## 1
Amino acid sequence: MSDQMHPLAPHHLPFFIPGPDGSDTLMVVMGLFLVGTILWVGTLYWKLHSLPERMAHRTHKLQFEIVAVLGLISLFTHMHIFWIAGLLLAMIDLPDFGSPLRSIAGSVERIADATPGAPDAKPEPEPDLDEPPVAHAGAKPAAKEEVRSHA
């Protein structure tokens, strides 16, 4: 073998032709491009797939957990109807019936002077009008209710 080039070969070869040492520059560049593109498309897919969950979480929706479960079901079953249902559910504002009902219950408890879970208060015994009031230790003596005569 001689190191001379064939007389019909071009003197300048394009960059995509591998050199005599076996290095293929185009294959290395395209391999890096392919790996980068796969990572970018995968990231885009995950962001798009988690869109309903992020929407429901950002707006503090009551149905956040349902949207998250629908997203997981659509991810593992590859049935896109669950993703669409999660997206629609994340966009809808469901009315909050719990807060007004809790407020009403709290108001009714305050009106009834009752607390939830507390035992019923025992009514205080009514004082007997025939007996004089009993003074407790450390208490001030009660004012006498007898009428004094000025005679």
## 2
Amino acid sequence: MPDSDGLLYIRFQTSGDQNALEVLFNKYKEGLVLFIHGFVRNMDVAEELMMDTFAVLVSGVARYKETEDALFKTWLFAVAKNQAFAYLRKRKFWFVSLEKDFLDNVESDDDSQPIAVFLKKKRESQLYRSLKLIDADYRQALYLQYFENMKPEQISRIIKKNIKQTYNLLARGKEALRTIYERMGYPWDI
């Protein structure tokens, strides 16, 4: 049986229920923008690509398959990642490592940036700042786990690693994060 977000999407696809799409949009728009921003490093482009992600949903180009192990959120973030990669391919930004630069050069201390406003609403700004200091592979996996509350099985589908590799990335990332926390003088309570 699909999750409730999956049911909303299916209801939109089958009956054209605009309210269902609006609920999904409002629920995921900020998280998607932040996730995409980690790849493209431009807030305006990230917002555009978030809209493109929802355009893919509306058009039905990508199809959500109802399965027990594939939540709608996992599928949606995979579509968003594909949109970010397509954007970077079109712009020929191959000199930028797509996965390695995830969340680099983001200043969450600057109150004027929309990303800082988003993070201030959440208690995770300390975590977000610390994530910038660890390896990009760890950073991406931990972002999905901590900020998007995804399970390792979902994360493995998005980052295209097998489940064992995903568990290893999460474990090593947490250890690297703990070291950063201790160096910054924060208590490790994650």
## 3
Amino acid sequence: MRHGKLGTGTVLGVGIAIAGTLAMAPAPVTPDTATISFDCGTYGSGTATLTATQDGTAATISLSTSAITSPIDIGANSVTSTLTLTKNGSGTTEFSGSSNPAIPAGSAVSTGPLSGTVAAGDSLEAKSLQVVVLGVTATCNATSAQSPGPFVF
């Protein structure tokens, strides 16, 4: 029975392939979760938890907030949301979507994943949130900075 040996060229080739794969893997979003406070005018105010993910240039942010509670049961995928974020300290970008879990009456509104596009190194911090539920629009403005800081993709 012959035992195979790996030559130096084979080992080197495998090492280069692994390093290339690791170099192409997207870096994780940091931080991946942040909190922020919102004022939604007559609809209330409170904190929100934002969770970000990235796959190449596509990114998503899911949001749960105590700033808006539902007075009635809301069905899944019936909340339309747009999250506006400050991009790299000067411009803005938007993440939007119509995805949400079913929300029982009296519960905090959760929305997302909201979809957006990012580039490597983008620094995004929530600025405002617009939520449309049953034709009623609530606009929430950030009253604090994201903690522990902006999302860096």
